[in-house]
Write a structure and sequence with these properties.
alpha/beta, Rossmann fold, seven-stranded mixed beta sheet, 22 strands, globular
Length: 492
Amino acid sequence: MRSVRRALLWLTLACAVPLALAQDGAASPAAPADSATLPPLHFAATVPGGAHLQPLRCATPARTAQTPPRPAEGGTPPAGSDEEELPLTQQQEQELRKEALPAPTLDDLRKALPHEEWLKVMHQRIRDVGGSRVARIGIWGGSHMAAEYFVGELRRQWQGRYGAGGPGHVNLLYGLPGIRLPVNAMCRQGRWQHELAPRALGAAALSAGLGLFMINSREAGAFIEIDPGSPSAAAVRTITLHFLRQAEGGMLTLVVDDVPVGQIDTKGPLALGSVQIKGMAALSRIKLVAQGREPVGLLGVYAEAEQGVVLDNFGIAGASGAFWTTVQSELMQQATAQRPYELVMLAYGTNDVTGTNWDPQDYRRRFETTVEAMRQVMPQALCVLITPGDRVTSSKVRSVVRDRNGRTRKVVQTRYDLKTFPQRHMEAARIQREVGQRHQCMTWDFSLEMRKAGGAYDLMKKQPPWMARDLIHLTPLGYQEMAKVYAKWLGL
């Protein structure tokens, strides 16, 4: 039986029609025989599927906790410390709250609402597309998105309304701090290196895919294996690989459901290539194995069902909006020609509103270039800008106190700044709204919604807390609750 399945897999791959990318970015029939020596740029294969393999088990990279343990307010100091943690006094608490930004006004809330007509257009587009094939939504951002807590809840809301289209983007950067996956497992063996888009404007542009990264290997036998099952319960019927075709590119062996399908030749003129595997039944596994010492570059893997909504999460912890300006736009355009989006969401700001001398005008200029770069790649997609959320900074004040008996002890107290970054993020939100209006993007004010709920400081004190102790990230519960607020804003 296994030999029959292998023969069928090879036959379907051999019968697939290779495609070449036309100059306008559309797919067209393969070039004539005089260029037949070039490897196919895009090709597809149909496989049986339905293997029902056991869940993938391997030494997956350890995930970095997004929420550090929460010590009790004024409680016992960490083991080995001779300092006593003191809570803020009632007077200190009152003085602290005087610095906080005022609650949003009714006018603030009114300005933050989406346009009703835009919402109607968005839902109609998702409904029309998702009824016949997958309707794709992409979200790009930093650690708030990479952690999957916010995006996972948002995906659940979208798919509950319009059908589960599968987990979508499987982030090949998994293993870097703060990145979680919407699938059962991804295993990696051998030497793989990753490259992120440079932060610095004017840096050499990276050959990247939609995720704004590339992962590559020169080690024979190095592999990546993915179990595309997901909590959405949507059977994955299509897996798409985006790879980098390059002058010295090597070979990749493709294995589906533990059966070799064929080899991918990545050598050729610089371009984004793709392989689409369709299963006649659900797919359980895909494995990519590097051959030889020539470089193989991977730009993205996507797992989808037959119809419904797919929410691709391209979040990378520490990412900057500047990433969009330091990748090769031609490759990005080729990627979206293969994988168009109905709605795109950019969630940047926290990593760009830093430093002691933050300049709003410089931020406006840089954010404008980010949105312009996105629009160059996806000019027709509906768009939402998600501003940075509320954030508070803190510092430790240490002192020595003497009791009535003359004994001394070391104490430490945490002081909070409820003004600097909340004001910056409010200003960044205003700038994003103004830039968004010029580029036909709606803006969801994350910082305003957090301040409506009490702001970062009060969200940290909730029981259970919505805010992590670093006062930058939310807890899993906090992300899920704020995603519900955003989903309501979207009319879900």
